[in-house]
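S.,

Sequence below, as promised.
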Amino acid sequence: LVAVGQKPNIGVEIAKLGIKLDNDKRIKINEKFETSIKNIYAIGDVVRGPMLAHKAEEEGIAVAELIAGKPGHVNYDIIPSVIYTSPEVASVGMTEEQLKENSIKYSVGKFPFLANGRAKVNNTTEGFVKILSSSETDQILGVHIIGDQAGNMIGEASVAMEFEATSEDLARICHAHPTLSEAIKEAALSVDGRALHM
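The prediction came back faster than expected:
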């Protein structure tokens, strides 16, 4: 895999309009997505945050709500990311490196697809689910999945994190059998050394 990255393609004319840019040449916005010019808003790839279509969509909804006088919000800490390779790679929340950098004590639960019944039947046993949770509160801080259907599975982790679930909460949810998503439950159980099928 070779990736060169991406950057906003705004053009120089925008600065002539009086719209301010940040140090990374993205449009500066406030907490309501408003630019340096009142009633002009910006979202998506030209503003801070990951350059993902679903992030831009959430920002668009938030801006529309704010313009309509309603509360609008995007939780940037819980934006899932998916790499559509084979196997897929998906993640949401913090990585182990970020947790270490921020001196956050954490526990790890990991479960391989090799031990998942559905993955065995489908011959898609490559990969795993990894859950990172706070050592103090057990709140889920990050989920990382490598394997078939990882992009579809990461949504469950995003919902759990949005509601500040713990790995214990996720471990106690009944998952249909046989499904790949059982690996999420097993990884949650694994945080406390209780995975059933290891």
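The mean pLDDT is 94.

Coffee later?
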